[in-house]
Amino acid sequence: MGQNLNRPLSPHLQIYRWSPQMAISIFHRATGFVLATAGMMTLLWWLSAIGGGGESFATFQRYVVSAGEDATGLQVAINWFFRLLALAVTYSFFQHLFSGLRHLVLDMGAGYELKTNRNWALAAFIAAIFATALVALFVASRFLGV
Amino acid sequence: MGNGTGIGKVRGLGSAKHGGQHWINQRTTAVGNLLLTVWLVISLLLMPNYDQATLAVWLAQPLVAVPMILMLVSIFWHARLGLQVLIEDYVHDDALKFASITLLNFYVVASLVFGIFTIAKLAFTGAPA
Questions:
Q1: What is the pLDDT of residue B10?
Q2: Long-range contacts of B123-129 (CB under 8 A, 24+ apart)
Q3: Which end of chain A is less enclosed by CB atoms within 10 A, N or C?
Q4: ipTM of the complex as predicted
């Protein structure tokens, strides 16, 4: 094609200094991907487990909630994999929710002043972590007997 | 079009005039997701317990099954639009991009129909044991 391979390319993630404003943008994308894959599949698994009856719901619970008393090491490990995945999905949900709300505000043309923009980006991160912690505490006290 | 200068060709072709609709649909489904997932979270918090029997009776009600189906449509549509942008941004090879978008459509439509069917079956035929 005769292209100059050494031509300057537009800077990417590794070039920019990390700031709340740029981090929230890439986090919006990354968490959207997590929700569209692991999140949607878990949601469908949960719905179909409800529809499938007691036995299929018990299977869902064994994988995602708790492997039970007489579980083998492998089953416990798989359970922990799905627990961490559920935690990632929960965090992704709140992160995407709050940064999505921020996007809707920006779409109206508001919140572009440098300080305001930075503060709302930071607030979205804090709100997401806080909401995730609340859900984790609720689940731990309600289902895991912690 | 055809033999003109570079700028002439671009002017002749113009945009596909579809970009705006994609953008609007993404925002519309975003608001739908917001309303419907908040509904789901509040409903779950108000549940007395999370047994299969309780959840099945709850999900089979029309006023739960309908918003749940709406939520799936809104979420899966939104995800389809978002993943499309991801593919367009990161997959540069034309053939691979076409294949990825095709797979994306299959993935989203198949799983959405599966979800709707699951809820509809429960709502129409009642909760299983």
A1: 67
A2: B123/B59, B123/B60, B123/B61, B123/B62, B123/B65, B126/B60, B127/B53, B127/B56, B127/B57, B127/B59, B127/B60, B128/A51, B128/A52, B128/A53, B128/A54, B128/B56, B129/A53, B129/A54
A3: N
A4: 0.88
